[in-house]
Design brief:
Helix content: 40-55%
Number of strands: 5
CATH superfamily: STAS domain
CATH class: Alpha Beta
Structural class: alpha/beta
Radius of gyration: 12 Å
Length: 112
C-alpha cells in the first residue's frame, strides 16, 4: 500500500494505492490518526488506485471516520473501483461512510 497526502481547499486528500488489507490496515490507520492529531478535520480518502479492501481495511476506514466525526470533522471516500465498491455495498459500508463518485464531488461536500 502507498499513501500520498495533499491539502486542497478545506480538506486533506489521502490517495491510497494497492491493497488495504490485514497487513496494510494498521499502517493506514496509524497515518490517519497522525493526520487527525495534526489538525486535519476533513479527510477525503481517494481510493481510485485501491485494488482490494478486506474487512480489516474497512474497519480502519470506519475507525478513521468515527475519529474525524468525534473531532468535528468528517472522513469521506471517493472514486472506488467496481470491486471495492461491491465490497463496500455488501458490507453495508455505504450507509456508514459517505462515498462519492469523484474527487471533486467529495471536495465540494467538505466546503463549509
Amino acid at each position: 500500500m502507498e499513501l500520498s497526502v495533499r491539502k486542497d481547499r478545506e480538506a486533506v486528500i489521502v490517495s491510497v494505492a494497492g491493497r488495504l488489507d490485514t497487513l496494510s490496515a494498521p499502517e493506514f490507520q496509524s497515518r490517519m490518526e497522525q493526520l487527525l492529531e495534526e489538525g486535519a478535520l476533513n479527510l477525503v480518502l481517494d481510493l481510485a488506485a485501491v485494488e482490494y479492501v478486506s474487512s480489516a481495511g474497512l474497519r480502519s476506514i470506519l475507525v478513521t471516520a468515527k475519529k474525524a466525526r468525534n473531532q468535528g470533522g468528517a472522513a469521506t471516500c471517493c472514486t472506488l473501483q467496481p470491486m471495492v465498491r461491491q465490497v463496500f455495498d455488501v458490507a453495508g459500508f455505504t450507509r456508514m461512510v459517505q462515498v462519492f463518485d469523484s474527487l471533486n464531488d467529495a471536495l465540494l461536500a467538505q466546503q463549509p
